[in-house]
Amino acid sequence: MSLRFGITLTALTLLCILASVWSISAGAVQISTAEIINTLFNLDGPKQEYIINRSRLPRTLLALVTGGALALSGAIIQALLRNPLASPKIIGINSGAALAVLLGTLFFPDIALRWLPVIAAIGAIAVAVFIFALAELRPISPARLALVGIAVGFTCDAGVDYILVTASTYEFSAPLVWLTGSLWARGWSHLNAVWPALIALSALCLLLSFRLDLIRLGAAQATGLGMNVRLERLILLGLATLLAALSVSVVGVLGFVGLMSPHIARKLVGGVHRGMLPVAMLTGMLLVVLADATGRVILPPIEVSAGILTAIFGAPFFIFILLTSRSEDET
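RE: above sequence
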């Protein structure tokens, strides 16, 4: 690895730590750094054990693991589709997971929290299988495949809207907040439901990062190097789908994290996936932690969802990428 990669990785790690400390301190009740240290390490002095240990610490850790997972999922999908505009949200995976969770909540209102990641995974996998089954039936370009994903995502979003409109307001007041991409009221139970799987999936994706570089060479060259391109694509797509689905099941739809983070990582360390993927993960962690903390300090005690803030910054970023990609295609 280059010196540039090492410096970038170290800097992003430090920024994530600083952002996490700020996230624990920020909110309607301000907590000093000394109180955070005393509470976390059980030292003598002023503490805020209830607010930190019951609310802000698990919430911050959840923001870190889901932000990294969504960024990693977006980077893999962009590599597989060879499309800079692709992301779990844009090709419909997040929407499929959201629809499945909402249907599960509707038909089984007393369902245990531990089953929501499973339901989200089923919905996301169903969408991914449908999209790529269409691609197998009639080979299409990555750009057209992304458009198919957008259409499927819109269909899932329409299903979500229909359920919310026809159901009682009180029945889905919490899902309404969740669908905006929020870490409100998230605690240890939500973190424990997903972190082991997200860590394991992320580690596996990093181990397979070199496969993405081979796929980027093109199917013919990758096959010539002894790679089963179809199988590798299926495995990587499955990993990316599960990363996005499990994240959506606990924090809702944070649509633009998977789009922005890989692009920022490429600007920082280049496009080689062995170095780009961990940088993208750290970037996603930083984005979600900052968005969640910022949403708590804008209008306390009212919280602005992290998904709203990432969309505010993500939409102009998406337009910039679209215009840049178009200009590059025309030249």
